[in-house]
Specification:
Rossmann fold; alpha/beta; binds pyridoxal-5'-phosphate; about 50% helix; 6-stranded parallel β-sheet
Length: about 750
């Protein structure tokens, strides 16, 4: 990339008389053209990432930073009287729901920056993740028409590379939009848009609402097959053109990574193409597939493990249903010959109870199966895929998730980046492990870090005031719980803990309480009623506390609207404390925890997901671990009775009573339903997520933070210990591991 040439081009962009949108397009296009003009030849062996979600966030600042021209561009346009910060209004590219989609984005960023040839495939949704507003404390969803105002100048439509995808009842044209990902190498994220009949175009209209509720199954199957088939179709076509129909060498040039099971139809499509179009025998095709595919599991939640009704698949994809059935028989025969016990074969089977288990397809075909944190991989091996692990232990490995320090440190916290530059030079930017060399005991260093944290808190408060119209308490501890709203993430437990603190404050039992602000950000899936009730409950608590003169100078709750990547950038930089309180065993990894740690927040968390590795890196003494471990939870499973538990703990009962005793107005019974989730068998057993069991330990952990925060030097040191021990959680490390251990690129 010719940096000077690009800057010269920007210099020559005429600012006068142009709208912000016009300038946005001109600047972005100049960058894209410059990037693409030097597109290197792809190496022979490449990795391909199949993900139904990419939560990219705003591209503008990130790309200018990657190009190394962000500061200069700001100056150039400031001189023309135009402030680039206007582009903070540009919509996020929110083509993902949460962690899984953001991980895909971080991985693309790291691969390009490290120079690994990793190409992404996905869907170009017309509407991304819904926009969230609160009306009367309740979530209201609006379509995310992200292309409407600002368009998408960071992508290039490639009509010349479109490909047809066939369903029993329609043919759909998949048109690629290529988004260059700039780094040491220029990689491409290729998102397919569905074109054709009105029905066909529906396929790329909406991002699937969530990973935890079942909705529009046929459309979902169409989406999954659509992009998988388009991607596989193109790669196979290109291979045949270049190397002919001998597929033995296909795995030498291609390695596929399935980001969860959403693209497992790619396996079936691959087998279909090789057997039907290119006349390989079924066993030959399976052999090639086994050397090509790999699978990352992201969840053990049963409701998120995809199983598709065979009848449903047969209806729109009869050939694919046939292939999967054949694969089921083929794998079964293989396992029988090996003499595996029947129950284990049943456990690993592709067809189970009239459904295709997409995870079992993935595990069978993949050379490598990985979990996303140590504990998660262990759970995969011991529980979810126990039979497969017993027979194919060599397939399994762990790759703990990571986040890119470019967006989650350099971009969102340039003050902290400068702090490192001044002390370490700039080499740490590419090798994050160097930040370990900061001396956390040095008084001047601590003071400098403390100043930065205060500044980021001030910026966050200003942003929240602008967005939400709420003034945050000054000189307070900022505690953030930001992530999708889900029962297992236990925002509900935090709500009850806040009520506990509220009552104690009001009763004068916490005379030395340091003012504290709880910041929540979370979207609830549109059909996930209980998650929406938790939002409402938290908003009611926020309102109650705000209106209570006895406490409102010391305690505050703010639930920000429309939590997204851009909001996350502000919150992770401006928080003191990171709440990661999932029920042990349920959060596969978490990545929000890593972003907050990287910016120097201490973790109040359970021994779950990557929290375990966070405290391994940063020290248990620098974080606040509480609550039941996986082993404890497992042991409790048959004996835990939340009703008795609450009766035995009046401090718990006092706060759960507020759900039903009229403390809060509840005409439509929403809070009552929340109480039911704790005390009654509903779709889960009573208090399935052990909210009450871990509640008082959470309160204690929060009060311990509150006490220790008073010793500013000590607390700042804990924060800095976290920030400077976060290198392991760089997605550069994760991508390096994938590249070395799985991809061989
Ligand atoms: C990082 C991120 C997530 C994932 O957060 P977790 O705490 O790991 O669940 C979700 N949404 C957004 C916008 C993010 O940036």
């Amino acid at each position: 990339m010719n940096r000077d040439k690009l800057l010269w081009k920007l210099q020559n962009i005429e600012g006068k008389g142009k709208t912000a949108v016009e300038l946005y397009h001109e600047i972005s296009s100049a960058c894209v053209n410059e990037i693409l003009s030097e597109k290197q030849k792809a190496p022979a062996r490449c990795a391909y990432y199949f993900s139904v979600e990419y939560l990219m966030g705003r591209m503008f600042f990130n790309n200018l930073l990657a190009l190394g021209i962000l500061d200069e561009a700001r100056e150039i346009f400031a001189a023309k009287g135009f402030d680039l910060n206007v582009f903070e209004e540009v919509e996020d590219a929110a083509l993902g729901n949460g962690g899984l989609g953001r991980l895909a984005a971080c991985y693309l960023d790291s691969a390009a920056n490290l120079g690994y040839p990793l190409y992404g495939f996905g869907i170009r949704y017309k509407y991304g993740l819904f926009k969230q507003k609160f009306v009367g404390g309740e979530q209201v969803e609006e379509a995310d028409d992200w292309l409407k105002v600002w368009g998408d100048p960071w992508s290039v439509r490639r009509s010349d590379e479109k490909i047809e995808v066939n369903f029993a009842d329609m043919t759909v044209t998949a048109v690629p939009y290529d988004m260059p990902i700039y780094g040491r190498s220029v990689n491409i994220l290729r998102l397919f848009q569905a074109e054709g009949s009105a029905e066909a175009e529906k396929i790329s209209e909406y991002l699937y609402p969530a990973d935890d509720c079942e909705e529009g199954k046929l459309l979902r199957i169409r989406q999954e097959y659509f992009f998988s088939a388009a991607a596989v179709g193109q790669l196979v076509q290109k291979y045949v053109k270049k190397y002919g129909k001998n597929f033995e060498h296909f795995p030498e040039f291609h390695v596929f990574q399935l980001n969860d099971t959403h693209a497992v139809f790619a396996v079936a499509e691959f087998l279909r193409l090789l057997t039907k179009e290119y006349r390989l025998t079924f066993p030959q095709a399976v052999e090639v597939a086994k050397k090509t595919f790999n699978y990352t599991n992201h969840t053990i939640l049963p409701e998120a493990l995809e199983c598709w009704d065979i009848k449903l698949v047969e209806k729109i994809l009869p050939e694919i249903a046939q292939i999967l059935t054949r694969l089921h028989i083929f794998a079964g025969r293989e396992w029988n010959i090996c003499g595996y016990p029947k129950p284990e074969i049943a456990e690993m089977s592709i067809v189970r109870g009239g459904k295709f288990s997409m995870a079992n397809v993935a595990v069978y075909i993949s050379g490598h199966v990985n979990g996303v944190a140590e504990i998660h991989t262990k759970i995969l091996e011991e529980r979810l895929f126990a039979a497969a692990y017993r027979h194919f232990p060599e397939k399994f490995l762990n790759v703990t998730n990571g986040v890119t320090q470019r967006r989650w440190l350099l971009l969102c916290n340039e003050e902290l980046a400068k702090f490192y530059d001044e002390r370490l030079g700039t080499a740490w930017r590419d090798d994050l492990s160097l930040i370990r060399n900061i001396n956390c005991g040095d008084a001047e260093t601590l003071s400098a870090f403390s100043t930065i944290k205060a500044e980021k808190k001030r910026q966050l408060a200003a942003y929240i005031e602008k967005k939400e119209g709420v003034k945050l308490l000054p000189d307070a501890i900022y505690i953030a719980q930001v992530k999708r709203l889900h029962e297992y993430k236990r925002q509900f437990m935090t709500a009850l803990a806040i009520l506990r603190i509220y009552f104690d404050l009001k009763a004068g039992k916490l005379p030395d309480f340091t003012p504290t602000v709880f910041i929540f950000g979370a979207k609830a899936a549109g059909s996930y009623k209980r998650a929406k009730e938790i939002i409402l409950f938290l908003n009611k608590i926020a309102e109650r506390i705000a209106n209570d003169e006895d406490v409102n100078a010391r305690l505050q709750v703010v639930f920000v609207q429309n939590y997204d990547v851009s909001y996350a950038e502000k919150i992770v930089a401006g928080s003191d404390v990171s709440l990661q309180v999932s029920t042990a065993g349920f959060e596969a990894s978490g990545t929000g925890n890593m972003k907050l740690m990287m910016n120097g927040a201490v973790t109040v968390g359970t021994m779950d997901g990557a929290n375990i590795e966070i405290v391994e890196e940063a020290g248990k003494e620098n974080n606040y671990i509480f609550g039941a471990s996986v082993e404890e939870i497992n042991a409790l499973e048959n004996t835990y009775d939340p009703i008795t538990f609450a009766e035995e703990h009046p401090r718990i009962k006092r706060v759960t009573d507020t759900l039903t005793d009229g403390t809060f107005e509840d005409a439509d019974g929403k809070l009552k339903d929340l109480a039911s989730s704790l005390f009654k068998q509903t779709y889960n057993r009573a208090d399935h997520y052990y909210v009450l069991y871990d509640l008082l330990p959470l309160v204690d952990a929060l009060l311990k933070v509150n006490e220790e925060y008073k010793d500013k030097t000590l607390f700042t040191k804990k924060q800095l210990e976290n920030a400077t021990h976060s290198a392991f959680f760089s997605s550069d490390r994760a991508i390096q591991t994938y590249a070395e251990k799985i991809w061989g690129i």
